[in-house]
Design goal:
The structure holds two protein chains of two kinds.
Chain A lengths: L13 E6 L8 H11 L8 E2 L7 E2 L4 E7 L6 E7 L8 H4 L6 E3 L6 E3 L9 H5 L6 E3 L4 E3 L5 H4 L12 H5 L5 E5 L6 H9 L15 E3 L26 H4 L6
Parallel strand pairs in A: 1-11
Antiparallel strand pairs in A: 1-10, 2-3, 4-5, 6-7, 8-9
Chain B lengths: L25 E6 L8 E7 L2 E7 L12 H4 L1 H5 L9 E3 L8 E3 L2 H18 L4 E4 L6 H11 L4 E2 L7 H8 L10 E3 L6 E5 L7 H13 L3 E5 L5 H4 L3 E3 L6 H14 L5 H7 L5 E3 L19 E4 L3 E4 L13 E2 L5 E4 H9 L6 H8 L3 H17 L2 E3 L3 E2 L5 E2 L2 E3 L2 E5 L1 H4 L4 H15 L8 E3 L65 H10 L7 E5 L11 H8 L12 E5 L12 E2 L10 E3 L13 E5 L12 H12 L16 H7 L29 H7 L3 E3 L14 H9 L16 H10 L9 H10 L22 E6 L6 H4 L5 H4 L5 E4 H7 L6 E6 L2 E10 L6 E5 L16 H4 L36 E6 L27 E2 L8
Parallel strand pairs in B: 6-7, 6-23, 9-10, 9-21, 10-11, 23-24, 24-25, 29-33, 30-32
Antiparallel strand pairs in B: 1-2, 2-3, 4-5, 4-25, 8-22, 12-16, 13-14, 15-16, 17-20, 18-19, 26-27, 27-28, 29-34, 30-33, 31-32, 31-34
The chains are: A alpha+beta, B alpha/beta.
Protein name (chain B): Molybdopterin oxidoreductase family protein
Cofactor (chain B): [4Fe-4S] cluster
Subcellular location (chain B): Cell envelope
């Protein structure tokens, strides 16, 4: 097994906050992630049979669509899924070689491809399906939280964020330190009631999902008392004497 | 026995992360073309290949974001389906047998065919250009050639929105208007296509929702944007107009309308002549100078544009000359107060309870009138009066394909604009806003060019323009169409974008005449761009008794091996969007916003590695070889070296060219100014776009804002700075109707009189889809429509190695309740049958769809072998096109056939389709039908890789 770093108070916990209220399922995050990371820290992200049946590639981020409830009362939910950078992930502890590891300095879970033997134990251990096997190279890959962007001094400071966050057209993705209660993302989670995914499993996911807001409903009610055209002889009379000026 | 624990990562010195790798070695800005949105991108290059494409944070359209399509540009650039060199057909059409030829041979072949046509009868060239963003060049070229037969794909996409808007409010939804995302409190989105203005809409929706504004989505299908709406209204397809008119009814019934706005900014007070049977019936009463009249409370009939008018909006009056007149408002209110527009009367048809329609009307009225917005922003109106504030009705609308793709779409779109006008919610704070260069006069220009086409003679004016009445139609003395697609004829008088969907069908039977050369650019007419691909293929391969093809010459330009390539005789291979110059022109579809004018360019960021040329360069060269006057110097030599030379130096009018920014010799002028030899360089330095910024006093009420209108004229965007009075009552439509009633020199042929009289109603109307008439709607009991996947743009996306992993095969989506009634389970194979044919596909069940509707994703299905995909790909075996059961014609009546299209605009009525769905017999499952034979690949197309490890990382 592989050890996890000891969690200390004030520990930096970098992660994502994903807003299910505004995600329209457009796949911008998934594709831009693929594009950045193909040539990034864990690249390439190979695609098997890219122009044939059975095309299947490595994606660090996938967006699923679900329906909840029946008929018109139901809801369609778009759900982006990627590594949650859990505080106590089994995907690290099950690793027989130490290739899967959690960084003490920011909590990012990474894979060291040089010593990964592609056994796939971590994928079995991860209940979120966040691990992606590079079958061609025989190593496991996963979301790096764009570790080669977020600290990258060759990128303007405002853009030192994961590719999925920057590209999201509905601003449904936010990045920051969820270990700092004063950070923007922590405040967003507090304000909007952000939820960890399947907390009952005990892995303490760092990423958080903001649930859909309550739907805006208005108090206005139809004016049932207003006359129907059938009730009045000449409904246009009321406008005839209206004095208008420009 | 447990092994010793492996130590912490940080204790392992070999585990280095390169935190600051250089992104690439070069970054270039340009404009995306993975769909029609024209977002700004930054392309990072490394060793001459693409490392990363990101949204340009400084770009006004996308503000740094980039969608899934744009992010997949790498795979489109490095697709193995790219054409490699000019091709000439050596086998029969459709065989896919080609030989590579030189550009010289290709250009000489094309010039030979085209020269013959131009010297004999230029109409025999049909030049149609698909999803073309260079129409200011292609349309101009066609006019120079002298053929009226030019259009792009708008006739099967958006013309109902363009015409409905431009003839009503002088601007349109689509991509030429935008909700005031920062102030709207109530937003109604009607059946939008998620590939037009998509990033701006997504950005806007998130801002809107963050403010707690209410978002109502009217759409038979609850996907995409509809999923995040506060209220989803799962209306029946094609009834949006009826729903809108029921809202109009409710607003009138409850007197929830903005009479001041109507009297100042619309033609509501204008007087309409009431003279049934007379030649002036329904026209505006005008004074001697031709100015429309209104009834002033104290003075009677006066010039309707007077600043001190006190209009009487209802009643009937007699002019001094004895004519009876009524205000537009009176006629409008009378019509829509009628019981047929009451919510109860429309509820069943729309598939919505009457109470719900009334509730939505009440909410709209409450927000518009009880939650009005006032900005402390002085402005001056067209009458020269200063106002201290801007008052707004914060109800905004947006609509696109779901309205557009019906045969009642023009009037449905007009109905939405009527709603906006009644609410006073046009270009006010919080409402829908015009994007520059709109508003424009109604209609915005002179009639279309195309009369009197003669050999070797250019046509004067714009081929696609704006009829004001029968005199502007392109018809002969018998009323027969002059254009091959019958646009601007009595078949479709306001076919502003042409009717590409009828060209091949009409040419096939020589109605109204035969053509010699069909010249197309990026239009996949032998597959997903045709309403009926099988019929298009039949015509393109049809031969005459002497063995010659019915359409003798087909020239096609595309960058990829699309399904249409095998049906052309000569292929002019285009570059990708990253290898070319382009111009998102102020003369065509610029990137202006409510905040000011704007336009953009593409610059080549990569050099082609194949023997291909940008289509626009080729067109300019063909123009020179043919000796078209605007493309040659007096000595006959080429006037322009290439497209960038044309972009910078072509002048449509003195000082007005394809780009509005950085004009004048020093680049200091905007709109009007001398050509600037550094113009493109200035665009590049600015991120490949130019954007003007309106001062705040010009931000709203642009139709009546003196400063705005004057500066708009000064910039060359409009010829006049007069008020743009919105048109509730459309006089051009009434003129067509009068002609149908027997008035005037130009009248429709008898067989079209009733049609013109009915559908050229000066006020919005609703009618059931034309193709439903005579159909057994009990048998074909389901409406069938398509939706745009947000991650695809037509066939361009479904060939992309990454995007096709997200959506590689489409199914027919159906309400679970409906499927249960039909005995269908998830993934069952079914036959989908319509009056036009049948297809086979799989069903998928869902909740968020109107139960009387089935739908599928657009353009996922591919023909086996095309796009260099393996013939076994799911796109070809399980993916399907609904197109195969759509007919491009209405059932023939009296020996005449009519396009399956809007009778006013000619817009293709894709979404009027009705089908039945039945389970396949055992043994029929497994492969979609129709499943035409696999296409062979053209010469030298690279082998498809079995594995892609795309990476520009050092030592991947």
């Amino acid at each position: 097994m592989t050890c996890l770093p000891e969690i200390t108070p004030g520990q930096k916990k970098l992660g994502l906050v994903i807003d299910l209220d505004t995600c329209v399922g457009c796949q911008a995050c998934a594709v831009n992630c693929k594009e950045w990371n193909a040539s990034g820290h864990s690249g390439p992200l190979p695609d098997l049979k890219p122009y044939s049946a059975g095309a299947e590639g490595v994606w660090f981020n996938r967006v699923h669509s679900y329906e909840a409830g029946e008929g018109a009362q139901g809801r369609t939910v778009h759900f982006p899924r990627s590594c949650l950078h859990c505080e106590t992930p089994d995907c690290v502890t099950v690793c027989p070689t130490g290739a899967s590891y959690k960084r003490i300095e920011d909590g990012i879970v990474l894979v060291d491809h040089d010593i990964c033997i592609g056994c796939g134990l971590c994928a079995w251990a991860c209940p979120y399906g966040a691990r992606e096997m590079d079958e061609d190279a025989g190593v496991m890959k996963k979301c790096t939280l764009c570790i080669d962007r977020i600290y990258n001094e060759n990128i303007p400071e405002a853009q030192r964020q994961p590719a999925c966050v920057l590209t999201c057209p509905t601003s449904a993705r936010h990045f920051g330190d969820l270990g700092d209660p004063e950070s923007k993302v922590s405040k967003l989670v507090a304000e909007r009631g952000g939820q960890p995914l399947m907390p009952e499993l005990g892995y303490k996911p760092v990423n958080s999902y903001l649930p859909p807001r309550n739907r805006t409903s208005l108090a206005a009610k139809p004016d049932e008392a207003a006359p129907t055209p059938m009730d009045i002889k000449n409904p246009l009379l009321r406008w005839m004497d209206k004095v208008l000026t420009r | 026995m447990p092994e010793a624990p492996i130590p912490l990562a940080t204790e392992r010195p070999d585990r280095a992360v390169d935190y600051s790798p250089p992104v690439g070695d070069q970054v270039k800005t340009t404009t995306c073309y993975m769909c029609a949105c024209r977002c700004g991108i930054r392309v990072h290059l490394k060793d001459g290949r693409i490392r990363y494409i990101e949204g340009n944070p400084n770009h006004p359209v996308n503000k740094g974001v980039l969608c899934g399509k744009g992010s997949a540009g790498i795979m489109t650039q490095y697709s193995p389906a790219k054409l490699r060199a000019p091709l000439k057909r050596i086998g029969p059409r459709g065989s896919g047998e080609f030989a590579e030829i030189s550009w010289e041979e290709a250009l000489e072949t094309a010039t030979g065919w085209l020269r013959h046509v131009r010297e004999t009868d230029p109409r025999r060239l049909a030049f149609f250009t698909g999803r073309d963003q260079s129409q200011s060049l292609t349309g101009f070229w066609a006019a120079q050639f002298g053929t009226p037969n030019f259009a792009a794909h708008g006739g099967f996409c958006s013309v109902n929105m363009a015409a409905g808007g431009l003839y009503s409010i002088g601007g349109s939804f689509w991509e030429f208007g935008e909700p005031d995302w920062d102030r709207a409190k109530y937003f109604l989105m009607f059946g939008v296509a998620e590939d037009h203005d998509s990033n701006p809409i997504k950005i806007g929706l998130s801002r809107l929702k963050a403010r707690g504004a209410k978002f109502v989505s009217i759409n038979p299908v609850r996907t995409g944007y509809s999923a995040i709406a506060d209220e989803w209204v799962g209306i029946r397809p094609g009834t949006d107009g009826l729903f809108a008119l029921a809202l109009v009814h409710e607003l009138l019934r409850t007197d929830s309308i903005d009479l001041d706005f109507l009297s100042r900014y619309t033609n509501a007070p204008w007087l309409v002549v009431r003279n049934p049977g007379g030649e002036d019936d329904g026209l505006f009463a005008r004074d001697e100078a031709g100015k429309p009249l209104a009834w002033d409370r104290s003075r009677g009939a006066v010039d309707a544009s007077l600043a001190d008018l006190s209009p009487v909006m209802a009643g009937e009056f007699t002019l001094p000359d004895g004519r009876r007149v009524q205000p537009v408002f009176h006629l409008m209110a009378e019509r829509y107060l009628a019981p047929e527009y009451a919510p109860e009367a429309v509820a069943e048809r729309c598939g919505l309870p009457a109470e719900r329609i009334r509730q939505i009307a009440a909410e709209i009225a409450d927000v518009a009138f009880n939650q009005a917005i006032t900005l402390d922003q002085p402005w001056t109106d067209v009458w020269g009066r200063r106002h201290e504030t801007m008052v707004g009705r914060p109800v905004a609308f947006h609509a696109m394909r779901g309205i557009s793709a019906h045969s009642n779409g023009f009037h449905s779109c007009r109905a939405l604009h009527l709603l906006q006008m009644l609410l006073g919610a046009v270009d006010t704070p919080g409402s829908w806003r015009y994007k520059s260069p709109f508003p424009r006069p109604i209609p915005p220009g002179p009639g279309p060019a195309g009369k009197g086409a003669k050999p070797n003679t250019p046509l004067a004016g714009n081929i696609l323009s704006f009829p004001q009445g029968p005199d502007d139609l392109l018809v002969d003395d018998e009323g027969n169409p002059l254009r091959i697609d019958k646009a601007f004829s009595w078949d479709a008088p306001l076919a502003l974008h042409g009717m590409m969907h009828t060209v091949i069908g009409n040419a096939g039977i020589g109605d109204p005449y035969k053509i010699d050369t069909l010249f197309m650019f990026m239009a996949n007419m032998a597959w997903n761009s045709a309403m009926n691909p099988g019929e298009v293929i039949r015509i393109l391969t049809e031969t005459q008794e002497d063995g010659s093809y019915t359409i003798p010459h087909v020239i096609y330009s595309d960058a990829y091996y699309s399904e249409t390539v095998p049906y052309a005789d000569l292929i002019l291979p285009d570059t990708t969007y990253l290898e070319r110059w382009d111009c998102i022109s102020i003369l065509d579809r610029p990137i202006g916003s409510a905040h000011g004018a704007g336009d953009a360019i593409r610059q080549p960021v990569l050099k082609p590695d194949r023997d291909v040329r940008p289509f626009q360069d080729v067109l300019i060269e063909l123009g020179a070889r043919l000796g078209l006057p605007a493309f040659t110097k007096p000595d006959g030599s080429p006037k322009f070296k290439d497209y960038p030379d044309y972009i910078m130096n072509h002048e449509r009018m003195p000082g007005v060219g394809p780009l509005a920014g950085f004009r004048g010799v020093d680049g200091s002028k905007k709109g009007v100014g001398e050509p600037n030899p550094d113009q493109l360089q200035r665009y590049i330095e600015n991120g490949c776009f130019w954007r003007d910024h309106l001062p705040p006093e010009q931000g709203f009420y642009k139709h009546a804002n003196k400063a705005y209108l004057e500066q708009s004229k000064a910039m060359g965007l409009m010829g006049k700075s007069d008020q743009i009075v919105m048109q509730i009552w459309s006089e051009p439509l009434q003129k067509f109707r009068l002609a149908a009633e027997g008035h005037g020199a130009k009248q429709p042929p008898d067989r079209l009189r009733e049609r013109i009289r009915t559908y050229c109603d000066p006020l919005p109307i609703w009618y059931p889809a034309l193709e439903h008439e005579g159909q057994d709607l009990g048998r074909f009991d389901l409406s069938a429509i398509t939706q745009r996947p947000m991650v695809m743009y037509h066939s361009w996306g479904s060939m992309n190695a990454w995007l096709r992993q997200i959506l590689g095969a489409n199914k027919l989506y159906m309400a679970r309740s409906r499927a249960a009634a039909l005995g269908l389970a998830q993934d069952d194979w079914v036959w989908v049958e319509s009056r036009a044919g049948r297809l086979k596909c799989q069903v998928s069940l869902m909740e968020g769809v109107n139960p009387d509707t089935v739908w599928t994703w657009n353009a996922i299905g591919k023909r086996a072998g095309a796009w260099n995909l393996d013939p076994d790909s799911p796109e070809a075996t399980r993916g399907f096109l609904l197109n195969h059961v759509i007919s491009e014609w209405l059932p023939a009546q009296g020996g005449f056939r009519q396009a399956n299209a809007d009778p006013v605009t000619g817009q293709a009525a894709w979404y009027d389709l009705r089908v039945s769905v039945t389970k396949c017999a055992p043994g029929e499952e497994g492969v979609t039908s129709p499943h035409p034979e696999a296409l062979p690949l053209p010469p030298h197309m690279p082998a498809r890789p079995d594995l892609l490890r795309y990476s520009m990382k050092a030592n991947p």
